[in-house]
């Protein structure tokens, strides 16, 4: 069975690199260094114009926990409606209550705003108190998939827990493995977990083309991390070898 590769792309450049390298789907986001937040309207619109593969937009108003107040939930619903209007195929959502349970009401509001777009429940799932119970609730909500590292720092480290979720899901929902995935570990992860979709940022350092550098700012880097076409390609090759 062909394995699907989703790339977490931080901006338009990364979205293009993800498609060029052989990614099947993009999770479009901002602030990956902080765990990811919602990109701007302009970035979403430009990325949608630039690539043909499906775009799922991360809906997360800030870094930190996944416990949101009414104003934050309203803001997320507005962002979701924007994504629908811009022609995105899906959104990536998640919300928890203070006890580490899936916040059903918040998620229902966001799903209603999605107006038929596909829904991925993001790694808030890795912060729940009871993974088995939370997975059933996410399935009941009608989500298409759930992104998880197995509750560990990386998906390879949480491979056994991911396998347990795949077994529990029993094809009722897709378990999307993500966090710390690269070409060196994805084949073994696929074998252990039994999963068929994989999520990676595939980032490398992009060197700034600036010739002028203010000497007063010496030590302040103008380079940045971005999706790298060749890293995506090596992941694609590794997955296609399974």
Automatic annotation (TrEMBL):
GO molecular function: copper ion binding
Pfam families per UniProt: CutC
Membership in a protein family: Belongs to the CutC family.
Name of the gene: cutC
Record protein name field: PF03932 family protein CutC
Major site of localization recorded for this protein: cytoplasm
Subcellular location: Cytoplasm
GO cellular component terms listed in the entry, alphabetical order: cytoplasm
């Amino acid at each position: 069975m062909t394995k699907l590769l989703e790339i977490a792309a931080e901006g338009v450049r990364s979205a293009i690199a993800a498609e060029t390298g052989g990614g099947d789907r993009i999770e479009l986001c901002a602030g990956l260094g902080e765990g990811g937040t919602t990109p701007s309207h302009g970035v979403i619109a430009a990325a949608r114009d630039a690539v043909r593969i499906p775009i799922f937009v991360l809906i997360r108003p800030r870094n930190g926990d996944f416990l949101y107040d009414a104003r934050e939930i309203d803001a997320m619903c507005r962002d979701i409606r924007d994504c629908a209007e811009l022609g995105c195929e899906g959104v990536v959502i998640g919300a928890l209550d203070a006890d580490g349970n899936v916040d059903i009401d918040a998620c229902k509001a966001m799903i209603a705003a999605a107006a038929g777009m596909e829904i991925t429940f993001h790694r808030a799932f890795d912060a729940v108190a009871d993974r088995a119970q939370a997975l059933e609730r996410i399935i009941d909500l009608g989500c298409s998939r759930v992104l998880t590292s197995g509750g560990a720092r990386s998906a390879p480290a949480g491979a056994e827990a991911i396998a347990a979720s795949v077994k529990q899901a029993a094809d009722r929902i897709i378990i999307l493995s993500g966090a710390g995935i690269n070409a060196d570990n994805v084949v073994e992860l696929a074998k252990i977990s039994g999963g068929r979709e994989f999520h990676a940022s595939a980032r490398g350092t992009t060197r700034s083309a600036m010739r002028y550098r203010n000497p007063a700012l010496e030590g302040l880097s103008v380079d940045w991390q971005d999706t790298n076409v060749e890293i995506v390609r090596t992941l694609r090759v590794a997955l296609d070898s399974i």
